[in-house]
């Protein structure tokens, strides 16, 4: 099964560092980085906000635990947002490519 993982980072540079590490280790086939994301959230008992970058990470569900570990090792947040959504369908050749790029030894 293929999944889409959403991860926010403190800025685009940090997102690029995380994305590079994931793609290099074949934990993700493709990562879109969207800068200029404004986040409003509750943290430390108060309402806070931040300008962040959002990563849209395409990978396999079987790689999720390794991906989470890698994100946490590269991330500056104590509790990074890491949310996984199933990809229930998609363009056949794209999904084949995704699987090929995340296959060990590929």
Class computed from helices, strands and strand pairing: alpha+beta
CATH architecture descriptor text: 2-Layer Sandwich
- Given as residue ranges, the uncertain stretches (5+ residues, pLDDT < 50) are none
Name of the top-level CATH class: Alpha Beta
Strand content: 35-45%
Average predicted confidence as pLDDT? 96
What's the gyration radius in Å?
14 Å
The description of the largest β-sheet is: 4 strands, antiparallel
Number of strands: 4
Helix content class: 25-40%
Question: Domains counted in the coordinates: how many?
Answer: 1
Strand order of the largest sheet: 2-3-1-4
| Shape summary | elongated
Summarize the helix and strand pattern as letters: EHEEHEH
Distance between the termini: 18 Å
By CATH, the topology is: Alpha-Beta Plaits
Number of helices: 3
Architecture overview:
- The protein has 106 residues and is α+β, with helices and mostly antiparallel strands.
- It has one domain: Alpha-Beta Plaits (2-Layer Sandwich).
- The chain has helices spanning 12-24, 64-74, 92-101; strands spanning 2-9, 30-43, 46-60, 82-86.
- The protein has a four-stranded antiparallel sheet with strand order 2-3-1-4.
- The relative contact order is 0.30.
């Amino acid at each position: 099964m293929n999944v889409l993982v959403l991860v926010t980072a403190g800025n685009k540079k940090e997102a690029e560092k995380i994305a590079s590490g994931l793609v290099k280790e074949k934990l993700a086939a493709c990562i879109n980085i969207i800068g200029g994301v404004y986040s409003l959230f509750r943290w430390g008992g108060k309402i806070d906000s931040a300008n962040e970058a959002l990563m849209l990470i395409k990978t396999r569900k079987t790689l999720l635990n390794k991906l989470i570990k890698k994100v946490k090792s590269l991330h500056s947040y104590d509790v990074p947002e890491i949310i996984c959504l199933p990809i229930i369908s998609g363009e056949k050749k794209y999904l084949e490519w995704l699987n090929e790029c995340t296959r060990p030894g590929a």
